[in-house]
Specification:
The protein has 400 residues and is of the alpha+beta class. The protein has a single domain, classed as Orthogonal Bundle (Cytochrome p450), CATH 1.10.630.10. It has 15 helices and 13 strands. The strands form five sheets. It has a four-stranded mixed sheet with strand order 1-2-9-6, covered by helices on one side. Strands 3-13-10 form a three-stranded antiparallel sheet. The N and C termini lie far apart (49 Å). The model has no long low-confidence stretch (mean pLDDT 89).
Length: 400
Amino acid sequence: MTDTVPTYPFARPTALDPPAEWEQLRSECPVSKVRMVTGDEALLITRYNDVRELLADPRFTHSLTEAGAAQISTSEDGIFNRDEATMTAGPNHQRWRRMMNKSFTVKRVNAMRPRIAEIANQLIDELIAGGQPGDLQSALGFPLPVFVICELLGVDPNYRDKFSHWSDAMLNLDKFSQAETAKAAMEFQEFMVQHVLDKRAAPGDDLLSELAAIVDSQDGRMTEAELVYTAQGLLVAGHETTANMIGKMVAMLLADRPNRWDRLVADRGLINPAVEETLRLDASSSIDLPRYISEDIEIAGCPIKAGTTVMASLSSGNRDETVYDDAAELRLDRVPNPHLAFGAGPHSCLGQALARTELQVTLTVLLDRLPTLELAVPVEELRRRTGLIVGGIEEVPVRW
């Protein structure tokens, strides 16, 4: 490990480029001390195999409510700081995951493709009507996933501005004060508690109603508290992460226009591998996945004591030169592509099928509707979203 303790997350030269520290740490110091925005220290893991091994090991909890765990956010109500996270961790996780897998299936998500395409077309109609240049992020990237997740959960999409604020607050690093995040957390909790009660009383044709009715063969059905936490988690993850990724995906593909975009216009068979490759190369996916180490372990030959908080850098692992040929290059036809964008192991992202579907459908509709799409500003002028656990781009100005 290094003697100095750098501040984390690292600064990036542009909205699309990775910090220089990743490559250096993978080569020289794959287990490195870092200092979070709270001032607490953690260890950063940067190599692909180390990250994958850590995430796949069920002994290492993703809850940071243990005494002595490093605090990731400056507020106490962020997504990693909540006691409710233990509902779907440890011995409860297998039961919860088993229930979720009965309803939140790939088949269900695939059945949503026509509706996702319909929403995308409506939003692109509005983008075109607004004239050029337009902001792809505010017109398409942010609204599409929230419309989709609201329909999936049977939630009124007219609350989408509130959902956006609540999601940002739950994903706070240092953008919001403790009072702001506490207020948002209380409002979000009250809203979802009432929504779950309404679904119990009058079920609809939505995922939450189905989850409320499912009886697990071993442990009964989900409690109200579990349903509330599940709905909150799906809404935050389903809205925020995919919303940011739509803008980043399009920006990455347009950054090397015409080489990338025009190839996709000409060959739609590249859409799915292109989506996977942009997920792999996303340099601002998140602050990474924290794990609280409950027993002494060793990673990359480095002993790590119980009670340590470890940040598993998915984004750095996805650029590991020992795993990927031309790891820094975006290759539209890269297959296979076993990237870590959705994590690995028993806690891999439950909503990855939905995220992939939204990205694939959005890209398909954009190529159909706006084949001459291009960035309206130089790549270097794209502005990063900061202060949140999930990274993104503020605006993606485009012409067509």
